[in-house]
Design brief:
This protein is 35% helix and 14% strand. The protein is an alpha/beta fold. The strands form four sheets. The protein has a seven-stranded mixed sheet with strand order 7-4-8-12-9-11-10, with helices on both faces. Strands 1-2-3 form a three-stranded antiparallel sheet, with no helix packed on it. The protein folds into two domains: 94 residues, no CATH class; 316 residues, Zn-dependent exopeptidases (Aminopeptidase), CATH 3.40.630. Helix 6 crosses helix 8 and helix 11 crosses helix 14. The chain contains 14 helices and 14 strands.
């Protein structure tokens, strides 16, 4: 869920370190200087990449193909310069390694035959075996990633809502329930389905107390030398600059996603991942919450990397690995089809981003590109779903009832289950995409 209203949902580095990006800079055509020190940083819990792994993509993309993918998907829309240089025959990228500060990845020359890129583990729809009369999703391996954790962790995650004593909904629990129902529907259509998380427990074995050192160092980097240990009694941005807040974010937002990515990439190895989430809007003070009048839907693919994000070498590497793997060529049309299915079933309007951390991906008004940890680390097409505003009063009442088939009386009228609509929209979108893209005989 994206809590659009909570300062506590902002990562400290994003809040303090990307001010130039958020506020905007003058557009520039020249790339940033290739300063090895400036570009040596790694994200919290990230790994220093093996830049030589990108050599396998040499000669697989032309300069024009690279520039098209960069300008239309992976770059922000505000024209800020990237921290790499595009020459006539190669991409020059700062590595952050003083002994070898620049990595050169050659483009395919106009007169050369296209080099074969490394074979991905995942398969495009067009690569799946012919159906030959079998169920429409046969052979397709889908990983379902229920967003957040839920259960006892819901309050720490700030992914719970309650407008009345005795009633509460937690996004992690709702996303898991949605995944369990969706799994049965997709398996009935022939798909192989694996849940990345199958219980209200974290996938990571780490806990907040494991990150006290990292959290303290992170705060020091931003000039907070004597941070408070606990955020008890604090509100708003004051919570962010405490060791407790930082350790918790490192646990459930960073370590958890890294653990899921490791599971997806090394163990599950699916053809695609569906990240299942809900969303919320501003609700005012926690002790006197207000319902939102807004209710909407959007679907995310990977892209829209801010230059300040690309200053971190693991992010640069992971972005280039996705771009040169051409994952976007499958990801965007797949996400578009799922968005169309969900829009038809739910009837929700499209959410409109007004911040520079997302951009349109294609022509569908529901589909945006955004750089999230999950859709960057999962090494296959990722469709990241954000339907239903949980603190919209009608949606809140529907989610309190849970999942059911048919209609029941809610708020004085017969209504379908929001979870059933969620599942139905995803199924419609996947069926449409794979029936149109794969061989039937």
């Amino acid at each position: 869920m994206t809590f659009l209203f909570k300062s506590g949902s902002l990562w400290l580095a994003g809040l303090l370190g990307s001010a130039a990006y958020v506020s905007g800079q003058e557009a520039a055509s020249e790339p940033l200087p290739l300063d090895p020190i400036r570009f040596a940083k790694v994200t919290p819990l990230g790994k220093v990449p093996d830049w030589s792994a990108l050599k396998a993509y040499a000669g697989t993309l032309s300069r024009e193909e690279f520039e098209t993918a960069w300008s239309e998907i992976y770059s922000p829309e505000n024209g800020l310069p990237p921290p790499f240089e595009i020459t006539s025959d190669a991409l020059l990228v700062p590595t952050g390694d003083p002994s070898e500060p620049t990595f050169s990845l050659s483009f395919r020359a106009a007169t050369s035959e296209e080099a074969s890129p490394p074979l991905p583990v995942w398969r495009r729809a067009s690569d799946l075996p012919a159906l030959r009369g079998r169920p429409p999703l046969s052979d397709l391996h889908i990983a379902l990633d229920p967003g957040h954790i839920g259960g006892q962790w819901g309050q720490m995650e700030e992914r719970f809502l309650s407008f009345k004593p005795g009633e509460i909904i937690k996004e992690g629990d709702l996303s898991l329930l949605t995944a369990q129902i969706l799994q049965k529907r997709l398996e009935a259509l022939g798909a192989v389905v694996t849940l990345v998380r199958d219980q209200p427990q974290p996938v990571t074995e780490q806990r907040p107390e494991n990150f006290v050192g990292v959290a303290t160092e992170t705060l020091k980097e931003y000039g907070i030398l004597t941070p408070a240990t606990s955020y008890a009694g604090l509100q708003g941005d004051a919570k962010i600059i405490t060791v407790q807040w930082q350790t918790e974010k490192l646990f459930y937002r960073v370590s958890e996603i890294h653990a899921r990515a490791d599971k997806v990439n090394r163990k599950i190895k699916p053809d695609m991942v569906l990240c299942l989430h809900f969303i919320a809007e501003a609700w005012g003070p926690s002790d006197a919450p207000q319902f939102s009048h807004q209710n909407h839907l959007h679907v995310l693919v990977n892209g829209c990397y801010a230059p300040v994000e690309l200053e971190q070498q693991d992010v640069r590497f992971e972005m280039l690995q996705r771009l040169f793997s051409r994952i976007h060529e499958e990801e965007i049309p797949l996400a578009t089809s799922v968005a169309e299915g969900m829009a038809r079933v739910t009837g929700l309007p499209a959410y409109v981003y007004t911040t520079p951390n997302a951009r349109k991906a294609g022509t569908n008004p529901y589909v945006y590109a955004r750089n999230l940890l999950a859709n960057r680390l999962y090494q296959c097409p990722v469709v990241y779903l954000e339907p239903f505003v949980m603190n919209h009063e009608e949606t809140y009442r529907r989610l309190l009832v849970g999942h059911y088939v048919g209609r029941t009386l809610i708020g004085g009228r017969l209504q379908t289950s929001a979870i059933e609509d969620y599942v139905g929209g995803v199924v419609q979108g996947l069926l449409s995409y794979y029936q149109n893209q794969r061989k039937s005989s």
